[in-house]
Amino acid sequence: KTNLIVNYLPQNMTQEELKSLFGSIGEIESCKLVRDKITGQSLGYGFVNYVDPKDAEKAINTLNGLRLQTKTIKVSYARPSSASIRDANLYVSGLPKTMTQKELEQLFSQYGRIITSRILVDQVTGVSRGVGFIRFDKRIEAEEAIKGLNGQKPPGATEPITVKFANNPSQKTNQAILSQLYHSPNRRYPAPLAQQAQRFRFPPMTIDGMTSLAGINIPGHAGTGWCIFVYNLAPDADESILWQMFGPFGAVTNVKVIRDFNTNKCKGFGFVTMTNYDEAAMAIASLNGYRLGDRVLQVSFKTNKTHK
């Protein structure tokens, strides 16, 4: 009861970020982000093994359903690895360009429990390439799906689809396709940042520093990302509140609530580290002046002591 599987991770999340996220709950024995054997790209899921079963249970209660970037992650107990669950990944081609990931899952879900699914999109246009992947819980379910759907026309399709097992490491032919997978344009904020910022009542302290995107004189940039200072938290605030507030804006790598050494109560402030500058700025613009309970939060880039 200490080993967890985490599904639907953002494509660009690293193993270190996964470990940092789950390490905020308790001590981790091991952590593994599962990557494609050929391309090294993340397959969007991983395993976290805690030292203490109580922490594993707490991680499920705290982090299951958390939004990270555009994904809602799923955290559950992992099952022991066995031959029955290996090689259950399918490659599907000839899909209608209009088919969504949800429709793809609906088509395949009749054959078993789907662990992850995705549709490849063109990097430039964002249009589907008509190719996708479905990973089933068990290999036998994947076999049934091939029998049931290979060569069939899905609803609304003019051409039959091809369904087969995804590449073995020996087949390098899919490498080019796989490398296209991960660069889909995922911009959630279509308007320019300055325009977005005008919608908010409280101008964040460093929004004027945004022009220097090279990060030279913008405060808050640590080697691992952008550090955000959150002030006026309640004494009972904990890390999960920060994850829930900042998670929707982008990749959060670390959160920390500063506690009183004697009482273990929050001293009123905390820090959040985010990978991407635009997303961090957006979070600040949205959450500075945010009312949490009976308190109004102050949110800004963490400044160096010398920076006024």
Automatic annotation (TrEMBL):
Annotated SUPFAM superfamilies? RNA-binding domain, RBD (SSF54928)
Q: Name one GO molecular function term.
A: RNA binding
Q: Which domain of life is it from?
A: Eukaryota
Which Pfam family is one of this chain's hits?
Answer: RRM_1
All copies of the RRM domain together span 2-80, 88-168, 226-304
Q: Which GO terms describe its cellular component?
A: ribonucleoprotein complex
Any idea which UniProt keywords this protein has? Repeat, RNA-binding
Spell out the NCBIfam families in the cross-references: ELAV_HUD_SF (TIGR01661)
State the family it belongs to. Answer: Belongs to the RRM elav family.
Under what name is this protein listed?
A: ELAV-like protein
Q: Which organism is it from?
A: Aptenodytes forsteri
